[in-house]
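Why does residue order matter? Because the sequence determines the fold. Keep that principle in mind as you read this record.
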Amino acid sequence: VQLQASGGGLVQAGGSLRLSCAASMAIGSINNIGWYRQAPGEQRELVAAITTGGRATYEDSVKGRFTIFRDMGKNTVYLQMNSLKPEDTAVYYCAAERITPILGTVTYWGQGTQVTVSS
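Structure:
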């Protein structure tokens, strides 16, 4: 699975951005797709994820501000980020998990996209 992330940029606090993660295969065949972020000097953390069945989960600090959703026809998963805060500044990555009979769980990563929120 190849993943192409885009949509990052510079925004003022309180603003919005939408990240896109385009997959090279039908996202209905991918068990989980998630957005992670990594700030300088910090560990990578899971921000939001969506399952094949459409169930979404969020990290506590983004609940009510971020929404993960998908367009099955475009094989794309989005992360709508509203009410952005300076602490949301990080490189954001999308990742896809597939559970296969032989290999078990395999994780694929897209390239990162920088999100910078100014105060």
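The two ends are 37 Å apart (CA to CA).
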